[in-house]
Write a structure and sequence with these properties.
It is a single chain. The chain is α/β, with parallel strands linked by helices and about 190 residues long. It has eight helices and eight strands. The chain folds into two domains: about 1-110, Dna Topoisomerase Vi A Subunit, Chain: A, domain 2 (3-Layer(aba) Sandwich), CATH 3.40.1360; about 130-194, no CATH class. Helices cover about 45% and strands about 10% of the residues. A four-stranded parallel beta sheet has the order 4-2-5-6, with helices on both faces. Strands 1-3 form a two-stranded parallel sheet. β7 and β8 form a beta hairpin. α6 packs across α8. The radius of gyration is 18 Å and the shape is elongated.
């Protein structure tokens, strides 16, 4: 398994599960061609923070999604699978590819893969990752108003709303350190006082 610094954009949950067998990375699913503004916003945050690798199915729908995302995010890296690597009977998709084929595609795309044993520089070079305990301490989990606070913090950080578990995954997947999250919450509190 490889580690990929960029966020990988795939079409669906089965594609994400297949990629997770080959690579440790933050993954965003488009849920097919019906990209919502919220998903586009989340991809934009990833594009700006970690960079993205677009990795869609080698079929017409996948090419259409790739074209749309490439128009929005022209500097995105592009990972491709040959149809023969992604086919299982009549089904064509990343979810059918072997971990080895997925790894080859990510390497060919120029994904940032730290050498084994070398320091990654990682997404948290500017601070420490957020923990579940931090979310609770900051009131973003475990309280009656936690959902509202996560929604407001997510809007300030450009990562949208999610339940506590998914919010934590987004924060850490996008390399948003504890200090930046805390600053966003302080800005929110200051705005409430005005």
């Amino acid at each position: 398994m490889i580690t990929v610094r960029e966020t990988i954009i795939v079409e669906g949950k089965d594609d994400a599960a297949a990629v997770r067998k080959a690579a440790a990375a933050h993954i965003i699913t488009t849920s097919g061609y019906g990209l919502t503004e919220e998903t586009i916003g989340l991809i934009r945050a990833a594009y700006e923070r970690t960079g993205i690798v677009i990795f869609t199915d080698p079929d017409h729908a996948g090419r259409s999604i790739r074209d749309r995302l490439t128009q929005l995010f022209p500097a995105a890296k592009q990972a491709y699978l040959a149809a023969k690597e992604a086919r299982k009977k009549d089904d064509l998709g990343i979810e059918n590819a072997s971990p080895e084929a997925i790894e080859r595609a990510l390497r060919a795309a120029g994904a940032a893969i730290p050498e084994e044993g070398s320091p990654s520089g990682g997404p948290f070079a500017s601070g420490s990752p957020v923990t579940a305990a931090d979310l609770e301490r900051l009131g973003l989990a475990g309280r009656s108003d936690s959902a509202r606070k996560r929604e407001e913090a997510g809007a300030r950080l450009g990562i949208g709303y999610a339940n506590a578990k998914a919010f934590l995954r987004r924060l850490n997947g996008l390399g948003i350190p504890l200090a930046e999250l805390t600053a966003a919450l302080e800005e929110r509190e200051a705005a409430e006082k005005e």
